Structure formats: structure tokens, C-alpha cells
Amino acid sequence: MSARSHITTHVLDAVTGSPAASVGVVLEQHVQGGWRELATAQTDVDGRVADLGPEAVSAGRYRITFETGSYFSARGQTTFYPYVTIIFDVDDESVHYHVPLLLSPFAYSTYRGS
Q1: What does the pLDDT look like over 20-61, one tens digit per residue?
Q2: Radius of gyration over alpha carbons of the chain, in Å?
Q3: Residues within the annotated binding site for substrate?
Q4: Which fold has domain 7-107?
């Protein structure tokens, strides 16, 4: 088993109250001139991605994009948000960053997890 990534995520489907499995996730780092892709993954059966990106990242700006349109389409649901993008800053390189997503077809929320 590999070490946990510096940045992890968890997606919960607020309509069903269940983990959102098989959601595509992309992690990127802001660099001069744009964004650089660091990793891609899919949420597991528990809605988690524990190995999203490297074991350590430098301070800076990052974004996680969730492919929510594909997730809802696979369930026969329409959604207002085909993608959810969360941009956040890593300011302390010594701590773990957990970025959860609470999802429904017409709303979402996020917070700084632990």
C-alpha cells in the first residue's frame, strides 16, 4: 500500500446519502502561465481518493476538478454542474490537505477537511 498523498478528497452524494464512487478527479497546480496537471484519479467505492498526486507538494495554488456530469449521467440524472472546480491554497507544506465535496445535481459544498 502506498503512502497517503499530501492532498486527498472525498465525495458524498447528498441525494442518496452515499459515497459517490467513480467520480473522475483532476489535481492541478498553478504555475506561471496557467495550470499543470499533477494527477488524475477516480473515487473508490467509499467516494475517496487517497492517492491523489504526490506525497508532498510545495506551497502554492491548486485546483481539483470533479467530473460531476459524467457521474450523474451514469445514474440517469441531469445536473446543473457538469464539473465542480475547487481552487485552494497550500500554505503549510508540513500538513495534510483534505478537500471534500458534498454533491447533489443542483448544489454542492466543500470545506477544509482533516
Answers
A1: 999 999 999 999 999 999 999 999 999 999 888 888 899 999
A2: 14
A3: 10, 48, 111
A4: Immunoglobulin-like (2.60.40)
